[in-house]
Amino acid sequence: MGTQFIDALRCVDLEVASNEYLAIMGQSGSGKSTLMNIIGCLDRPTAGEYWLDGEPVSKMNDRQLARIRNKAIGFVFQTFNLLPRMTALANVEVPLIYSGMKRKARSERASAALETVGLGDRMLHRPSEMSGGQRQRVAIARALVSDPSILLADEPTGNLDSATGDEIMKLFDNLHEQGNTLIVVTHEQHIANHARRIVRLSDGNVVADTAT
Amino acid sequence: MLIVETIRISLSSIRSNLFRALLTMLGIIIGVAAVITMVALGTGAQREIDNQMAALGGDILSIQSSAWFSRGVARDQQTLTSDDAAALATGSEHVAEVVPEINARFQIKFGNKNLNVATVGTTPNYPAVHGFKIEHGRFFSAADDAARRRVVVLGSEIPGMLEVDAAALVGQKMQIRSISFDIIGIFESKGGSGWRNPDDDIWIPLSTAQFRVTGDEFVQTISAKVSDTSTLPMAMLEIERVLRREHGILPGRDNDFAIMNRKQFAESRQEATQVFTYLLAGIAGVSLVVGGIGIMNIMLVTVTERTREIGVRKALGATKGNILLQFLVESTILCLLGGMLGLALGAGVSALLAKYAGWQTVITSGSAMMAFGFSAAVGMIFGIWPAKRAASLDPIDALRHE
Q: Is B251 exposed, middle or buried (0-12, 13-18, 19+ CB in 10 A)?
């Protein structure tokens, strides 16, 4: 009663290759959040299919989806979403806890990931003791730590000033060069320009799919 | 593996808001402390009765005049005499010792001190049968009794009441109902037996009491020690037969005396105490349930507060099960900590009660285990709903939560 069902996405046919660097653009309400949730395995399409690493994700149950999110997806959020009471190192370790990794191996992997994003000297700081750029780097390290198939960033520079935002985008560029697959959701053209391919959404449809 | 991590996460989340955790636990702390204290008091009371029972001995039957009814009204009636005691001593083979007792309260005078004390007129075998030991002097002998000598033995607290040194009293004279008596002995302390304290009684020979003080031959109680506990039922029948014959009671008429097994009496008291303990512990247990509701309330608040954290954890790969476990472990840890603090508080209160109120309290490992079991169960039962709510949050909504 009173609830209207809207097709947030229609006829989206998208194929992303390994080591691609893709930007998804669109106005708010264009369906890019829904697309990102489906790619990130937080949501399932009501119709249609989504295959990831040769597996039909759209048919999976909650438990299997949690495992996919843990192993195959690295999330980077606009608001960082770090756990406030934990140190940077502990934050980066969280996905490894859920994959059942032993403590020692976990802390080694997490330190290595923090080194990669240039925070080797901030490992035991809490989010409240770090700048926005540093927090986003911790979040990127957390996304990288389980060596995911896709690094999925939702407006990663949205809460940062432009200089810091540029640094973060440079970090993404480097990660792409190291062989990671990146999908960045943004509404800012200059952020999207870092990507090698831009998909534009409007009213739930892909309206453009261009290489830069 | 994951459970260790889960406990670590829960502990850090409790630590981050220690004051609130403490307030949350308060209900459990008070509940467990109340249960522990009640059970400690009950166990103490029971142990006291156990000790009394050991002191009473299961082989003593106590015979008293029974209430006598006349036109529906109960009348006090003296029916037992020292002749009955003599008949029992000679006429029943299962009875080893017979101790008649006259119980009355008399005014005694020593120096300028006047006291009203319970006085027992009895035979020389009294200390052996009832387990009294002489500390100073001696108990009266058969010769004292036969000669109706005016000798008296005092309970251990009497010298204190007279403000005289116990050892110095032996050999001195005191007045009982204005009759002069020689103090020949003082008992060791026997300790209160629940109904009354025998340490502030005094003892005089039976015949002295009958002929010099009360002036009649009635006795209030006859204690009969059976030769073997296994023959107790037979001894009771025998006593009944002898006394009916002595009293000339016709067949079909009721006894004018009652035979009591004091151990049975103590046992029924034991049962009553136990029921009372469970009742009190049950009432205290209600506060545990109230405490559990407090835990549930705070856990629900915590789930709302940490919606975003739950979303993040889910995005990073936590399953419903992981989240459920995390919140369940947290509420269980809260309750267990509360249980521990409650146990400590209960032990403290019990110790204080024992020290200042003089009540015997006993904390057994059983009651400690029970407290733990209860608080863990409360934590789990009242943690289930909040944990389920946390686990079933949709990660997308949870991440969007401000």
A: exposed
